Amino acid sequence: MAVKRGGLIIFEGLDRIGKTTQSKLLYDHLTLECGLLCERLSFPDRSTQIGSLIDSYLQRKIDFNDHTIHLLFSANRWESIDLMRTKLLQGYTLIVDRYAYSGVAFTQAKGLDIKWCQSCDVGLLKPDLVLYFHRNKQSNCLSFTGDERYETKSFQEKVEFYFEQLRSSSSEQWKDVNVIDKHNVEMRDKESIQNEIRLYVKNCLDGIKSNHIDELWK
Ligand code: NYM
User: Fold this and answer.
1) Thymidylate kinase-like domain: from which residue to which, for each copy (predicted)?
2) What percentage of residues in the chain have a pLDDT greater than 90?
3) Ligand 1: does its nearest atom lie under 6 Å from the Cβ of 58?
4) Is the beta carbon of 15 within 6 A of some atom in ligand 1?
5) How far is CA 91 from CA 78, 94, 159, in A?
6) Which of 58, 149, 153 to probe ligand 1 with, by most ligand atoms within 8 A of CB?
7) Is the ipTM of this complex over 0.95?
8) CA end-to-end span of the chain, whole Å?
9) How far is the CA of 133 from the centre of ligand 1 (A)?
10) What is the pLDDT of residues 117-170, one digit of tens each?
11) Which of 61, 104, 132, 181 is exposed most, by the fewest CB atoms within 10 A?
12) Is 7 in the pocket of ligand 1 (CB under 6 A)?
């Protein structure tokens, strides 16, 4: 019997909002409890030569202008595309921390044009599901600060604005994951977020009926 392809599931959102924790929990659930073939990836993939340039940039060891670093982030996705397609067709579900949406939102926050930002990623594999981690803006219980570039409150707020724009104009299947509790006071507990995600993922995987993979933004 032909293998059914796996799903391409993207975790998106601001820095330090809980994507990595949740993607690991999902990976454990899909592999250990559901017995599915599954792999986790993240962008930037700092293990490649391009990824190592990006890593040095993020750690402020080297500089690039805004267009150049955007192209490097995009190239870092393109260098994975063949492996990702092969894995999906072998039946692996790919759980991916960040994708082209981060590319666009972070670079737009520096003032570059959306059309140019998107153009570099046109034709990448189109996700089956984008889990968009967000918070209610009134909530104050998230800290975005860290040592890498971009990890300041003011910059993250700009990025958030552009993420919201992308979210409202995208044709891909996006699901909002609000990480703040309904009283707007504290983070929701990990289990309740994970349970919500599992439902979205189950529906997504059940809905994949053909092995065809669309192209992003085409
Ligand atoms: N980032 C990530 C971009 O600016 N453009 C991109 O295309 C991608 C994939 O890199 N602050 C930014 C977002 C993060 C930083 O990501 C490092 P992470 O997930 O912390 O390794």
Assistant:
1) 11-164
2) 89
3) yes
4) yes
5) 21, 9, 34
6) 58
7) yes
8) 31
9) 14
10) 999 999 999 999 999 999 877 777 677 788 999 999 999 999 999 999 999 988
11) 61
12) no
Domains by residue range for the chain, with CATH: 8-206 (3.40.50.300)
| Residue carrying the six token digits 């490097």 | 72
Half-sphere CA count of 29, side-chain side, radius 13 A: 16
Instruction: Please tell me the distance from the alpha carbon of residue 12 to that of residue 104, in angstroms, as a whole number.
Output: 12
Residue whose CB lies within 8 A of the most ligand 1 atoms, among 10, 14, 106, 116, for a mutation test: 106
Single pTM value for the model: 0.96
